[in-house]
Every structure is written in structure tokens, then in C-alpha cells.
Design brief:
single chain; seven-stranded mixed sheet; alpha/beta; Rossmann fold; 25% helix; 142 residues
Length: 142
């Protein structure tokens, strides 16, 4: 298992952070995002969307559970926010397998709400806020 860490202070560093995460992920397409409310999960995902050339507005799918974005190259990226789900059945009803196993990038906020359904191979991203700095812990599961 490979781990890494990125520390940043300002939002203007997010483009570089997105590049570092993408390089660290190297082939993993399922990325999970954990952190307290307001830690910056969706903000980081917006920067990643920009890095990947997403042409749609990147916003939290809190109520729809999943947003689908299109890149300039015509590739799809799926963005889940599981904060509001109560159990695995909600994801099963949504047909999560079609998203998680579609060989497209899939970014999942609040994966702890559906631990049993997250694919074994994934990149775990945990954001911690301390004294104005954000620390991102990265962990590859393969």
C-alpha cells in the first residue's frame, strides 16, 4: 500500500495539488474523498475537474447523489456525494455498479456511508484542516 501527503495553504495552489494527486493515482479511477464538512472536498473536486478538462459546472451532487461531467475529449467523469444516503440500498437502486465499474473516473465524497460498495482498488483522499493549512493524505488500495 502506497501513501503520500500534500499540504497547501491557499486555493491558488489547487491546480498544482490536482496535478500531484493525478500523478499519485496513476491508473486508479475510483477516488474517495473524506473530510469534515467544509474541509474542501468539493472545492478540490472542482480543481480536479478543471485539471481533467471538464466542460460542465462542477458542483456537489448532494441531492441527486451523482453528477455526470463531460470533458473536452468527450470522456465522462462521475461525481458522487453520499452524505445523504441512509443505507447501501439507495446506491443499489441507483445502479451504482454501472458507474463504479465503467472504467471512467469516479469521485466519491463521503465513502464511509457505503464502505461495503466501494471497489477494492481505489485512491483514498482524506482532507484535514489545521491552523489554516489543509493536509491531504493519499492512500492507494490495490
Amino acid at each position: 500500500m502506497m501513501t503520500g501527503q500534500i499540504i497547501y495553504k491557499d486555493l491558488d495552489e489547487l491546480n498544482e495539488v490536482a496535478k500531484k494527486i493525478t500523478k499519485f493515482a496513476e491508473g486508479l479511477k475510483i477516488w474517495t474523498f473524506e473530510g469534515d464538512l467544509g474541509a474542501g472536498k468539493t472545492t478540490l473536486i472542482k480543481a480536479l475537474g478543471q485539471h481533467f478538462g471538464v466542460i460542465d459546472a462542477v458542483k456537489s451532487p448532494t441531492y441527486s447523489l451523482v453528477n455526470e461531467y463531460l470533458t473536452k475529449e468527450g470522456t465522462k467523469i462521475y461525481h458522487f456525494d453520499l452524505y445523504r444516503i441512509n443505507d447501501d440500498d439507495e446506491l443499489l437502486d441507483l445502479g451504482y455498479e454501472e458507474y463504479f465499474y465503467d472504467d471512467k473516473y469516479c469521485w466519491i465524497e463521503w465513502p464511509s456511508k457505503a464502505t461495503n460498495l466501494i471497489p477494492e482498488k481505489h485512491l483514498a483522499i482524506r482532507i484535514h484542516v489545521k491552523k489554516g493549512n489543509r493536509t491531504i493524505d493519499l492512500q492507494r488500495y490495490e
